[in-house]
Input
Amino acid sequence: MTLGIIIIIVVAAIAVAVLGYLLYAVNQKKHTGELKGRFGPEYDRTVEASGGRKEAEQDLAARQERVEKFDIRPLGETQRQDYVERWRVIQVRFVDDPVASLRDADALVGDVMTARGYPMATWDQRAADVSVDHPEVVANYRAGHETSQAMEAGTATTEQLRQAMVHYRKLFEDLLLAPEPVGARR
Output
């Protein structure tokens, strides 16, 4: 082999390696963009919680794969109206008994999740599952849950309980009104 051929082979190998890296980087950027678009603020929260982009993206992709296996379904109109009425009763009772109302709000959100087809595993798993189809309001679920824990410990104020009801209501409404899951289930 002549020196010219060796140089051509080396340059070609470098070009292929650079091209491969560029394609990988473009695909990675596209994947990151899709996850950011899909999960919104949940993407940033997961990156912060997991300590890095790569770990967070693996977690979010795994959530997506897990939830795609569920039979998430819309609520029927009768079911929806029943839940709306139950929520109304809980809200009215809040003035007289905020602690029981918050417990009931948490339970009602769980009932709606179950009716929609989300499995009721650990609380962390439920939050991760619901984040796939409801990424804009899962932060409300987390905030409401934190206040519920503070309430059980006896450290939550009435204002915190009121705010937790607002958080639960946002997720409740999103779960109730979402006719189809956001994620593709095919």
About this structure: The radius of gyration is 23 Å. The mean pLDDT is 87. The chain is about 80% helix and 0% strand.
